[in-house]
Design brief:
The protein is built from 4 helices and 8 strands. The protein has 177 residues and is an alpha+beta fold. It has one domain. The chain has an 8-stranded antiparallel sheet with strand order 1-2-3-4-8-7-6-5, covered by helices on one side. A hairpin with a 4-residue loop joins strand 6 and strand 7. The longest helix is centred in the first third of the chain and has 21 residues. The protein starts with a helix and ends in a 14-residue tail after the last helix.
Length: 177
Amino acid sequence: MLTKTNIFIAVLIGLTLLLKAGAAYCEPKNADELYYKNIIPGKTTADEAFKIAGKTEKTRKNDDNTVSHIYETKKAGYPNEITVKGEQVVHMAITIEDTGELNIKDVHKLLGEPKRKGYSFYAFTLRVSAYPEQGMVFIYEDNGGAVVEKQFFAKCTLEEFEKTFGKNFPEKYPYKM
């Protein structure tokens, strides 16, 4: 038999689930909301980034004299990376832990059509929208548009992007089926 207490608990659980589901998705209102914790490559120093993101013991030295600081996420096998050169943040790769958090349609609505589209080497179902002038790349599911990773770098021209990060995102489908 349902008591007032049981009904109250059921309503409370229902409201909690609704609030949690609603909080996961929030359409961005401006480009700054897309950055991770307001860390902006080319502007934010390494010290400032580490104060915000915390220190990590996991690092990787890269061939281009940069160091990537690796942060584990709740999504096993998909860490966040903050890459620095000297005292400056130069690149970030941020995993979207909840794929309902951001959709590529919202990015396109906010930033316009990307300057460059392409493919991801991560998986054959992933696509890429690049905005070099904003210093942003979004990797998303071809089916549905859920963004799975955001990458940030210092703002640059499309030509500069092609010489640096562009090679990581081929314009032609890289898989043979």
